[in-house]
Amino acid sequence: IMSKGTVVLAYSGGLDTSCILVWLKEQGYDVIAYLANIGQDEDFEAARKKAESLGAKKIFIEDLRKEFVEDFIWPSVQANAVYEDRYLMGTAIARPCIARRQVEIARKEGAQFVSHGATGKGNDQIRFELTCYALYPEVKIIAPWRIPEFYNRFRGRKDLMEYAQKFGIPVPVTPKAPWSMDANLMHISYESGILENPKSQAPPDLYLMTKNPADSPNEPDVLEMEFRNGVPIKVTNETNGISKNAPLEIFSYLNEIGGKHGVGRIDIVENRFIGMKSRGIYETPGGTILLKAHLDIETFTMDKEVRRIKQGLGIKFSELVYNGFWYSPECDFVRHCIAKSQENVEGKVQLSVFKGQVYILGRESPKSLYNEELVSMDVQGDYDPCDASGFIRINAVRLREHHRLQGFSGKKQ
Amino acid sequence: IMSKGTVVLAYSGGLDTSCILVWLKEQGYDVIAYLANIGQDEDFEAARKKAESLGAKKIFIEDLRKEFVEDFIWPSVQANAVYEDRYLMGTAIARPCIARRQVEIARKEGAQFVSHGATGKGNDQIRFELTCYALYPEVKIIAPWRIPEFYNRFRGRKDLMEYAQKFGIPVPVTPKAPWSMDANLMHISYESGILENPKSQAPPDLYLMTKNPADSPNEPDVLEMEFRNGVPIKVTNETNGISKNAPLEIFSYLNEIGGKHGVGRIDIVENRFIGMKSRGIYETPGGTILLKAHLDIETFTMDKEVRRIKQGLGIKFSELVYNGFWYSPECDFVRHCIAKSQENVEGKVQLSVFKGQVYILGRESPKSLYNEELVSMDVQGDYDPCDASGFIRINAVRLREHHRLQGFSGKKQ
Amino acid sequence: IMSKGTVVLAYSGGLDTSCILVWLKEQGYDVIAYLANIGQDEDFEAARKKAESLGAKKIFIEDLRKEFVEDFIWPSVQANAVYEDRYLMGTAIARPCIARRQVEIARKEGAQFVSHGATGKGNDQIRFELTCYALYPEVKIIAPWRIPEFYNRFRGRKDLMEYAQKFGIPVPVTPKAPWSMDANLMHISYESGILENPKSQAPPDLYLMTKNPADSPNEPDVLEMEFRNGVPIKVTNETNGISKNAPLEIFSYLNEIGGKHGVGRIDIVENRFIGMKSRGIYETPGGTILLKAHLDIETFTMDKEVRRIKQGLGIKFSELVYNGFWYSPECDFVRHCIAKSQENVEGKVQLSVFKGQVYILGRESPKSLYNEELVSMDVQGDYDPCDASGFIRINAVRLREHHRLQGFSGKKQ
Amino acid sequence: IMSKGTVVLAYSGGLDTSCILVWLKEQGYDVIAYLANIGQDEDFEAARKKAESLGAKKIFIEDLRKEFVEDFIWPSVQANAVYEDRYLMGTAIARPCIARRQVEIARKEGAQFVSHGATGKGNDQIRFELTCYALYPEVKIIAPWRIPEFYNRFRGRKDLMEYAQKFGIPVPVTPKAPWSMDANLMHISYESGILENPKSQAPPDLYLMTKNPADSPNEPDVLEMEFRNGVPIKVTNETNGISKNAPLEIFSYLNEIGGKHGVGRIDIVENRFIGMKSRGIYETPGGTILLKAHLDIETFTMDKEVRRIKQGLGIKFSELVYNGFWYSPECDFVRHCIAKSQENVEGKVQLSVFKGQVYILGRESPKSLYNEELVSMDVQGDYDPCDASGFIRINAVRLREHHRLQGFSGKKQ
Q: What is the mean pLDDT of each run of 10 residues along chain A (413 residues)?
């Protein structure tokens, strides 16, 4: 039988993508299994063997952790990237990282097709596919959960299990949690299943990356984070002298400390790109520490009006990334502008991590615009307080005119 | 001797404004002492007696707590008002509240002058005076800390103490804290003195409104907050059944719970309107709980795109209020728009307060745009996953074109 | 044969929608022909007869001109709605007007389906359908130009002509212009065909609504436009005393004057919602006059900072409307905010229309914030020029600090 | 007598700054007269002699025309800089150009002071002085029109004339126009005097830079403008073959053509930084042509979403420049971002200039994202119209949900 061509499948090792792998073969494709290591807790060798046993033509297990931190987490730190005021986008920034390598493999292997196991209602399908189209415009995408032949055949987990048994796909021995989960170096997200009811509280044993603050240590860890160009270049634990200075090591250590103290748990309802509201629970320990520390050093070193403009760009960046446009002309542009704004974001922040919280304790910088003498209540310095009278009166010109007009119109304040 | 006219002085009962009161008399003014109760911890009767003894022509002690909550805190809650991503503006929203009454008194008493004890480097002078000019355009403002005759005479606390002794002004018996402080129902702020060094950590005994999270209870309080039109109309403590439903009572209760669990402490450097960076430490217990709860119910009930526009308006609102433009045509306009956006922000949020943190547990609303069936992974419903393919491909049109052009230009991704 | 149901077809009387009408019948639908009069030059009675002869079950010819002006053009005037700095959106605002009535008819007639002749690459399909879905969520939409059975059958005009002949559809006797065109009260747009080459100049005889400025009168018309709440309530031609004060009459008169003087011709490339660039030529005579006049009276009467916020909302409004979201929660919200901003936009503007241009000559308003005495170079009035020194020096605090830091960093200006 | 120090005075050669020169000497300063040639019509040698005769210690006449075009006009073209939708800011961009050289001279000559003749109610004082403070933070500024001793002595033109006669300052022989005027390469502005009444029409003989469109040629000039990096690199008159390719030559030629055809006249009310509304009349012939041409090539070559973000940055840029913040960290940042956005803004625009209007005729670019095949109505190409159905339906998810909720709330559309 003639092959329909080669598909690079983003393979997770789980039941869904295992069934997809077999199903794609059934449809006549050669399948290359591609498994990205972005820091999730996974037995990659077992996954390799499984993919082999299912008939993958070739298997790529790629350690993307370093580039995930440097190329995706770091720019997000510079941007103070938060979607809808709360979500740090651990999943959203992982998708372009995974898909970028996937299309590199597809190009290298001459595959015309890529495939993934993302569902048809979610954001991830969009993030995967926009990345693929942006970097490999002529690629063809097979999204089984949007193909009626597939989704009508696999209407529930039971169908997948039966299919697995029929085709010799090893099935999970532990029962599935009543929610779905996505893990990487940045965060773990939990959604669907019993969490779909937005009123139901998350069970306390759901969290895997962070300790319950009620059970976390009664002593804080005190860290000093050093930044240059808006990204951390060193973290030192002042409690025990431990110090890290490579990006992946820094981030992993912040995860460790944040996890130990229960930092970064949120329970939110968010707006998906496709216009639905969904409920998600996230834990982002290291990312939360970094956000707080970066906000502090940034405000300390950046001009006020640059900060205001950059804040708007950061919000834009977050929307773009959440919606899957990491690889787009506008996101390239925004990233460039944000990176430019970070040139003086340099210095050290002292902070304490304790019981789910991050407390900023102090900061210092050779590039700070903070001028202790200028602001001091005890020193007049170069500043003439009389100038403030003129400043205020000129700012009031407009307000007084407005009042005059209101008087004319007979309106009341 | 002819009086130069009548001044309404925003009087705090402290050393500075007591000296100003006497100094204004010395300059030939009749002085009306005006003391606003906006929830600070103060012996108002003692302050009245002190003002009388210093020769105030008249004394107004005004309980503004209810209007502070309803007219100033509530609109800020609707706006999710946060300045520079962190500061909840407890001082900034108190100033227009205080000054509004001050000019009402001035108008009623036929006073042409108002005066205050705010310094010449800070934001508060601006907030006070812009409010005064906006509501009483022809008013004349006496800001002693910007008048050379005054500030050259009182170069330090020692000069004030000597003046006080000379003019029989009672002097504080307890030594002054090595920082200055501003308290009201919303928050306490701490700044200057030893805090001017941005690296120096705040001493643990600084905080008066919140308990140290290390010493706070080991059991959370679980609250249910009910909102209508984007403001709380009821709070119930699910732990003990206590319930409040009047604005001032609700807010005071949230302060109590937040304070008990150490919620709302921040240490930041911020950008003043006059272009200096300053370091401030704030504790905003009830306001922090409210911000988190409101964000949750708002995102749950508000359309995604309305939310995006409203988020921008909220940032604008925060800048305006921080800079002293509460009473301005643009802030009126923004407040109106934000209030409009809150019409469906209605429902209940469950949350837990523990060790300095606020954890959202769940939410429900009769007005929610959340559609459990639509978003469910287990129900297809009205939603056709195939539509997503078209959605993604159309979104990719532009990205693929961009890639085509890049190919042309010989550029690299 | 059982009918598949009833379709309300947006019928234009032209070849395309006539073929669609017959084709829908062929597919088993009952067809209601709906023809909206939004000011295009059309023989509506001939169109009615044609639809009857083609077997339409029912025919609605609806005069929407008044509501088009009042409900769609007027809010756009308030918004200064311009897409991508140039396009006044005559087509974009007509689509929701047409589709609103279409779904009213569908609901009233119990039709489950609506249909239209818009192409699959354009914006209009989106504008029609988003309106339909927003106002009649359960409606089913038949878009033949996106149905393979249809578009594969009708690959070019020749196929339509053959089909027309076969089914007795009257065919146009005049040859089709080598571009397509969309006309209504607001504008005529020209695109595709020979205009698809963005370098080809539009032929001079293309324009139907405006005279060539080279041939337009050598004398201007001088108008006075009176506004209230940001919309015109009266226009008077000062040259001849002609005066109009009903919305449709005002707008039609402005079209007449603008057309006579060749006002409002543009040739642009724009970005469609679906991510393509397209070239369009537009003539919007009355709308162009109104935009200029409204901008003038608005700036004259609106506070500067309100104007700045409102300018942003106007740009947002334009994007939403261009993209088809007239009926959306966010567009409702933005329209509400913009309308609020217009409460004082009242007064008279004098302008001259000549050779393709609109020249503002002067303006007056009972609500203006313009204060001739305040601004006068010859009168000092209440304004103290010394205040400006303080204003400037305080604004410079930040700039001087920045310079200090740059010195530190050794950077050059 | 000891000199109080050296002042660099921005000298225009006119009556005001001649009096200021003498007055500064009277006050005990050494005065360096600095006269910038930014393209105004001026007898510079006569001005030099005059300054000499008035006792200037040194005289600098600086030809800044080239740097005005390259460093100030070009970035404004890239930004599509327009203040409040109409004003092209010819004065606002000249001020930092002039003041930059002024502080260079002051530094070089060891002068601690700079001075200018701008009034105390206007924008120019701010633009001059913010530039000076930004580039020479320790400079001292003498603004006579804000010094009571000066402005009380010179309450009107009569006082200046008397002073001039007393001190041998040559007085103008022609009567002053009943308005004031500011001219440079970019524009001439007219304001104050009889123009302070916003209803009074500008007299037809006011304009000096542009011909009255009624008297302009009856034949257009047709130009081709070539852009690279968002700035013009060549202009060719297709009518006569004349071609220019150096910045100053290009801009001067556009002024010539625009002036010949009466392009760029506006009569507006604008909001000054200090909160007043003022009426200004401007003629900006070359700048208006450039704005239209740049808008066209930019939209033709720039990605839609980049354009949207850049549009916001351009508005911000305009506000900053209008308010005098050309030299500020935020304006540096915005200029950098805008310049980045222009990297692909390259190609040729054909346009016709006629009777006060600029008509775009066509455009071409090697970097365009315009895809004639993709957008063609006659070619399906790679585009699948069925995708649009999914795109629309997904965009409608949110709108349909909103309608569902409205039904619940019993609200009406």
A: 93 95 97 98 95 97 98 98 98 98 98 97 97 97 96 92 94 87 97 95 95 97 98 97 98 98 98 96 98 98 98 98 98 98 98 98 95 82 90 95 72 40
Q: Out of A355, A378, A395, whose CB is closest to B213?
A: A355
Q: Is D85:C311 a contact under the CB 8 Å cutoff? A: yes
CA-CA distance, A264 to A282, in Å (whole number)?
8
Give the closest of A119, A129, A329 to B392, CB-based.
A129
Chain B CB contacts of A296 below 8 Å:
268-269
First CA to last CA distance, chain B: 82
Strands D188-191 and B243-244, by their bridges, are unpaired
pTM listed for this prediction: 0.97
- C-alpha–C-alpha distance, residues C352 and C297, integer Å: 15
User: Which single residue is written with the structure tokens 């409009």?
Assistant: B340
Contact status of C395 with chain B (Cβ, < 8 Å): yes
Candidates D236, D17, B328; CA nearest to A401 is B328
Q: Does residue D196 belong to the interface with chain B, where contact is any CB pair within 8 Å? A: no
Q: C155-175: buried (b, 16+ CB within 10 Å) or exposed (e) per residue?
A: eeeeebbebbeebebeeeeee
Contact criterion met (CB < 8 Å) for C390 and A389:
yes
C325 CA to chain D: closest CA distance, Å?
9
What stretches of D136-246 show up as alpha helix (H) in DSSP?
148-153, 157-167
CA atoms within 13 A on the CB side of D117: 22
Alpha helix segments (H runs only) across D44-116: 44-53, 65-67, 74-79, 90-109
Residue A363 falls in the annotated catalytic set: no
Q: Per-residue pLDDT tens for D170-213?
A: 988 788 899 999 999 999 999 999 999 999 999 989 999 999 99
Flag if B307 and A271 touch (Cβ within 8 Å): yes
First and final C-alpha spacing in chain C:
82
By C-alpha distance, the chain B residue nearest C315 is: B309
A394 touches B: beta carbon within 8 Å:
no
**How far, in Å, are B252, C391, D121, D143 from residue D126 at the CA level?**
47, 9, 10, 11
The answer to whether residue D379 neighbours chain C at the CB level (below 8 Å) is no
**What angle in degrees, to the nearest 10, is found between the helix axes of A90-109 and A304-322?**
60
Residues of B in contact with C328 (CB under 8 A): 303, 305
DSSP secondary structure letters along D312-362: HHHHHHHHHHHTT-SSSHHHHHHHHHHHHHTTT--EEEEEEEETTEEEEEE
Contact A21, A11 (CB under 8 A): yes
Is C303 in Cβ contact with A398 (below 8 Å)?
yes
Query: What's the whole-number average pLDDT of chain C?
Result: 95
Do B360 and A267 lie within an 8 Å CB cutoff? yes
Chain D residues in contact with B405 by the CB 8 A cut-off are 344, 367-369
Phi, psi of A317 (to 5 degrees): -55, -45
For residue A293, the distance in angstroms to the closest alpha carbon of chain B comes to 11
